[in-house]
Amino acid sequence: MDRRRFVAGVGGALPWVAGCTASRSESGPRPQSGTVESGRRYALEAHPIGADGIRVAFATQAGELPDGALDLFLATLDGSDDPRTYGHREFEYAGFVEYGGRFYRVTVDETGQKTRERPVLLAEPVESEAARQKAVHWSTYSGDDDAALRRAASQADSEDGNANGNGSECDCYVLRHRDPDESDLLPQPKHEYVRYDGSVLRLSVERRELTETEYTYETTRVADSTTAFREFVREEVVDVWLDDSNLSERQRTVFEAARAGEYAESGDLSAAYRGLLERIFGDLPADTTGERVGYDGRTHEVHVHVGES
């Protein structure tokens, strides 16, 4: 199941529906003290996905892909020899794409490394009054240049040399696929000094040899119609199914409350609730997360919000 893709995309998209919250007196027996962090609140929601919603929830239409991802996807269909990227992934995780009424699984594998020379943008904090007087607001740069500047500034402050996803350790941001005639950052930044987040940064571009991760893309056709894709999702994608064989009566009541709006407990969770969360998520979640599960023959988006009580 493409769980990571769901977790990344659903956190801000799922509506937080106000609903009834179970009282602790209804929670049943509690686990031993210390097994759950004191003061934590676990709020569970479950939203059924209708038959027509399966396609939207699990697959991206090809026309909605970013240009780079679409080019790679079409190249795999055309039989190109192992479409690759270096130092970055066009598909963050494996997923499904709908194209021409058919559905494809996209897989991305790390297949090696390659060293090549790249232009990189550096953003160095400076404190001189002369630099401050020359500095322009960072928004003077626009579009892709704007995004690159912000990433370079973030990378300069990061203790993790790979924090910006360059695919190589670098205190910089790699400028890929940029036309010097269309970018104000190449061959050197048009504005050397910018004001950003309360600081003045000196921008510069260097050419460096970087060792970058190689990513190879493949597609596999999994269904020839929406109906067939729904069946594929049920049989091959949804790993967790809840029913009378693996739910107690109390756990079913909890899940029904989550379907109706929200179910929540704080502190030491009841054994039934903790067991339900572990069955859905594999372990007691430490942070807010989501999963897609089957329940009573229907697929659901399940979301647990973890926070302070």
Amino-to-carboxy terminus distance: 31 Å
| Biggest sheet record | 8 strands, mixed
Count the DSSP helices: 8
Q: How many domain modules?
A: 2
Helix content: 25-40%
What's the β-strand tally? 13
Order of helices and strands: HEHEHEEEHEHEEEHEHEHEE
SS-derived structural category: alpha+beta
General shape: globular
The unreliable regions are 1-36, 160-169
Tell me the radius of gyration. Answer: 24 Å
pLDDT averaged over residues: 84
Strand residue percentage: 25-35%
Structure described in brief:
The protein is α+β, with helices and mostly antiparallel strands and 309 residues long.
Question: What can you see in these coordinates?
Answer:
This protein is of the alpha+beta class. It folds into 2 domains: 3-66 and 224-308, no CATH class; 114-215, no CATH class. Helix content is 26%, strand content 34%. The chain has 8 helices and 13 strands. The chain has helices at residues 3-10, 53-58, 67-77, 129-134, 143-157, 226-237, 249-260, 271-281, and strands spanning 40-49, 59-61, 84-86, 95-99, 102-126, 136-137, 173-174, 193-196, 199-223, 240-242, 263-266, 289-295, 298-308. Strands 2, 3, 4, 5, 6, 7, 8 and 9 form an 8-stranded mixed sheet that branches. Strands 10-12-13-1-11 form a 5-stranded mixed sheet. It is globular and about 70 Å long. The relative contact order is 0.24. Mean pLDDT is 84; it is low at 1-36 and 160-169.
